[in-house]
Design brief:
By secondary structure, the protein is of the alpha+beta class. It contains three helices and three strands, in the order ββαααβ. Helix 1 packs across helix 3 and helix 2 packs across helix 3. The radius of gyration is 16 Å and the shape is globular. The C terminus is likely disordered.
């Protein structure tokens, strides 16, 4: 089960600053899907596609869902966080090791050391 982990910096809503919130992306309950559709005005499939394509609207919707699952009552329209500073990683099941996150944050590969 993929797990997204969000750690919010000081630019986030005060109730989120310093918190780490997780979202199991293999679970989406019907009421959650309906709530996401209600606040975004889009079909859940569209929002999911936006999320997987790193589009802001999709990221906002799924971070909002993670915040709600964590028991923090925050209106969708009031959710604020720094997308670039928010640490988002995908972890493998049963491990604490993070898979690579933002490809822009990865070191460039040395072409000389790449096997051909």
């Amino acid at each position: 089960m993929p797990l997204l982990r969000y750690t919010f910096d000081e630019l986030a809503n005060p109730e989120l600053v310093g918190k780490t919130i997780e979202l199991d992306t293999d679970v989406l309950m019907l009421d959650e899907a309906e709530d996401v559709e209600k606040v975004t005005g889009k079909a859940i499939a569209v929002v999911h596609d936006e999320f997987t394509q790193d589009r802001a609207a999709g990221i906002r919707a799924f971070v909002w869902l993670a915040v709600r699952r964590a028991g923090i009552d925050l209106k969708y329209s009031e959710l604020r966080f720094n997308v670039k500073a928010t640490f988002m990683v995908v972890t493998a099941p049963g491990t604490e090791e993070a898979a690579p996150g933002d490809p822009l944050d990865q070191p460039e590969t040395d072409p000389v050391s790449v096997p051909t």
